[in-house]
């Protein structure tokens, strides 16, 4: 998730910069550098998590970023600004802000701490747990992306179709 989001923000910097500015949480002069910093940070977190060597730092950094993102979204939901994009992946149709998106982001922060728990358990569990976490994370992200591009389900007999008796 972090690798795709970070690289997308690096590649489509202007779109992400606009999304970041639309949150209206920072001074105007800071958006450019913060946009670059977030994109680089997300990419770096992904590399730490995938490496297996930096999983502890990567997990903590990922959880921290996700909590910051959830706070930024929550502030805007409280302001009634739910028409904003979550900004997760520039160039992809993103969800609009809602409490459900905020809660999902907080839940992801908890999941990001899984590598930390595995490493704290130590012993022979750390490497298998890391491998399963990476594989599971990749599968969940691919499933999420597939769901986003599927057309909506059409229920027979709905969408304006009338039945005659």
TrEMBL record:
Residues 1-114 form the Methylamine utilisation protein MauE domain. Coiled coil: none annotated. The keyword Translocase does not apply. It comes from the Bacteria. The chain crosses the membrane at residues 59-78, 99-121, 127-144. Keywords: Membrane, Transmembrane, Transmembrane helix. It is found in: Membrane. It is a multi-pass membrane protein. Pathway: One-carbon metabolism; methylamine degradation. The keyword Transmembrane applies. May be specifically involved in the processing, transport, and/or maturation of the MADH beta-subunit. This is Methylamine utilization protein MauE. It comes from Acetobacter ghanensis.
